[in-house]
Design brief:
Blueprint lengths: L14 H11 L3 E3 L6 E3 L1 H20 L3 E2 L5 E3 H4 L3 H7 L4 E5 L2 E3 L6 E3 L4 E8 L4 H11 L8 E10 L13 E11 L2 H21 L6 E4 L11 E8 L5 E11 L1 H5 L3 E3 L5 E3 L1 E8 L1 H10 L16 E6 L3 H20 L4 E3 L7 H10 L4 E6 H6 L1 E6 L5 E5 L3 H26 L1 E3 L3 H7 L5 E6 L3 H11 L2 E6 L19 E6 L3
Parallel strand pairs: 3-9, 17-18, 17-19, 22-23
Antiparallel strand pairs: 1-2, 4-8, 5-8, 6-7, 9-10, 10-16, 11-12, 11-24, 12-13, 13-16, 14-15, 19-20, 20-21, 23-25, 24-25
């Protein structure tokens, strides 16, 4: 292993530092000059682009179209929806002036006090307010509905504690905002988009998730219901990986968005919003990676196969290149991204360690002796297993390995997640065990008081009322001793 990799903190020693080290050393991102912001480097952005492209395709299959709305939102718009502004008030960055004054010699730069805006502008923490102000001009009749828009953009939330990808002051995301004629149609859309997220996270990221609905305390500010997908990281903590919100008519009433129904009577519109962000990058890192670096599922790896030739001279390299080129052509024709690294500025050992650190799923190594023997070395990143195999049929073997690795990563993560879901009805036992992580399926009386006590005592929160678990006999709340209304997933989280 290359000397540089020895500096990667081990997960068992300090999981948090391991994560930070990996983000930096795998060339995913680095800290920006602005507190709490990050610079996403080309390799990290290439992963995000693959996520974005696949999600965008899935959104459009459901009838959603992309649009773009302004970064700056008048402060007065936030005042129209009380619960919404309460939820974001402490995180809002505010623009109050539009000009600077510079001294003649350029040594002093100050905000021009004469250039104060008539109304402060909020850098969008989310776009419900400006979008619903816009929808008012788009919606008049039932014939105008539904409207289903999504935008890919950045937002700013002035976070006090930040960590790359997981929680930053500025981050990239998509936010969908739909308008419907009926409650039933809006609720169905919100749930549909949650399933889109779950299918993507499980099918492409190879990360198992629990779907469910948030408690009233944890739901999105201004929503009637928030649906969530929750993933478990290797340290047993939860990561909220995507949310979809049924907004009811709250924003339609705040911005007076009505339509004439088929009986020519005015009605308020029903709404949803839904989003995922670069937080998914954090999930991808923390669910699969190991002490050697990233482990990327093949469907999201910028480089799916790297080929490293081993040669002593230009003649050998030419022979290796000629031998491997048909394999490269076949793989690329199958839609597999291949890098043939014949650069002579780095030793093969350094290349091996670097691609291992960056999580390239499959590595092929071919030397002059391999050509003589009709063999080639193949290594898969998830297991670090390598073997010398016949050169004949190597392209098909690579395809099969990539498919198997995608499935194996999901199964490994699911097995780990499932082994750390615990049913618990004893609060003392819960308080002792929660420090070691895991998802605890517990009876809850449905009150905010019980929810607040759990958080105060343990730093754990109710992640969701999960789907797919038997709720027919929830039992007795372990905190209050009252009859439970449901069973919930409780965990510490990022």
């Amino acid at each position: 292993m290359a000397k540089e990799l020895k500096q990667l903190t081990k997960r068992a020693d300090n999981y948090s530092q391991w994560y930070n080290d990996l983000v930096a050393k795998a060339d995913l991102a680095e800290q920006a000059p602005v507190r709490g912001c990050m610079i996403i480097k080309p390799y990290g952005y290439a992963i995000w682009e693959k996520m974005q492209q696949e999600l965008d395709r899935e959104f459009k299959k459901t009838g959603v179209k992309n649009a773009y709305f302004p970064l700056l939102i008048p402060k007065s718009f936030f005042a129209r929806e009380a619960e919404h502004v309460k939820g974001f008030a402490k995180e809002c960055a505010v623009v109050t002036h539009y000009r600077l004054k510079v001294s003649d010699d350029g040594s002093d730069i100050v905000v021009d006090p004469a250039a104060k805006l008539d109304e402060p502008l909020i850098i969008r923490p989310t776009s419900e307010t400006i979008i619903w102000n816009t929808y008012k001009g788009w919606i008049h009749s039932w014939r105008d509905l539904p409207i289903m828009c999504n935008q890919w953009c950045n937002v700013m939330r002035w976070e006090m504690r930040t960590r790359p990808f997981l929680r930053t002051s500025e981050f990239l995301w998509q936010e969908g905002h739909t308008a419907h004629a009926t409650r039933e149609e809006a609720e169905a859309k919100a749930k549909e988009m949650l399933h889109v997220y779950a299918n993507f996270v499980e099918g492409f990221m190879a990360v198992p998730v629990i779907q469910g609905v948030k408690s009233a305390t944890e739901r999105f500010a201004g929503a009637l219901d928030t649906y969530t997908i929750e993933a478990m990281m290797q340290d047993g903590k939860a990561l909220q990986s995507g949310t979809s919100h049924f907004l009811g008519q709250n924003f339609a009433k705040s911005f007076d968005v009505t339509y004439l129904n088929k009986e020519n009577k005015p009605e308020y519109v029903w709404a949803t919003s839904w989003g995922v962000s670069t937080r998914l990058m954090g999930a991808l890192i923390m669910v699969h990676s190991d002490d050697n670096g990233l482990v990327l599922p093949p469907k999201l790896a910028p480089i799916q196969v790297v080929i490293v030739p081993i040669s002593k001279n230009a003649e050998q390299l030419a022979a290796i290149t000629e031998k491997i080129q048909p394999v490269i052509n076949e793989l690329e024709a199958a839609g597999i991204s291949v890098k043939y690294d014949d650069a002579d500025n780095k030793r093969p050992g350094f290349k091996f360690a670097d691609y291992e650190l960056k999580g390239v799923p499959v590595r092929l190594v071919l030397g002059a002796r391999d050509i003589e023997n009709g063999t080639i070395e193949i290594m898969r990143r998830d297991t670090l297993e390598k073997e010398s195999v016949s050169f004949d049929g190597i392209a098909q073997r690579v395809k099969d390995t990539l498919e198997d690795m995608q499935k194996a990563l999901f199964e490994k993560a699911k097995k780990y997640r499932d082994s750390r879901i615990y049913e618990c009805n004893d609060y003392d036992e819960f308080k002792k065990r929660i420090v070691d992580g895991g998802f605890f399926l517990c009876p809850w009386d449905g009150t905010a008081e019980t929810e607040a006590k759990i958080k105060e005592d343990t730093q754990a929160t109710i992640r969701c009322v999960p789907y797919g678990f038997d709720q027919s006999n929830p039992g007795t709340d372990m905190v209050s001793g009252k009859p439970a209304t449901c069973k919930v997933i409780i965990a510490r989280s990022y």
